[in-house]
Design a protein that fits this description.
This protein is an alpha+beta fold and 112 residues long. The chain is 30% helix and 35% strand.
């Protein structure tokens, strides 16, 4: 099994970006300690104050799926969910695959 990558673009509710980014940065330190996630980057848009990007690279898809059941991830998702108004796009990619579009929730806004 090869590397597993995710690219996510989140639409954040007004005035919630800093709080969301701080929570993600704090969680990223714990995610690094899991030892199965090589990269967990959080980026913000210079043009749109409500847009946050997350890039994750896991050892394999199984490691990513297993992480979803950890209290750390469950709590992160639960605590950040109220700050997120939608997803622009989420893409998943195995090592030899092209990025595939995936939306875990209905997109509220599509930005081209």
């Amino acid at each position: 099994m090869g590397k597993y990558r995710l690219n996510s673009s989140l639409i954040v509710k007004k005035d919630q970006r800093e709080k969301l980014v701080n929570m993600l940065l704090k969680a990223s330190k714990s995610i690094e300690k899991l030892g199965e996630c090589d990269i967990y980057n959080i980026m913000v848009s210079k043009e749109d104050p409500n847009l946050v990007f997350i890039y994750e690279e896991w050892f394999n898809e199984s490691a990513y799926i297993t992480s979803r059941s950890l209290d750390l991830i469950k709590n992160l998702n639960e605590n950040t969910k109220p700050m997120i108004s939608g997803f622009v796009k989420t893409q998943r990619q195995g090592l030899d695959d092209e990025f595939k579009d995936f939306s875990p929730f209905k997109c509220l806004n599509i930005i081209e």
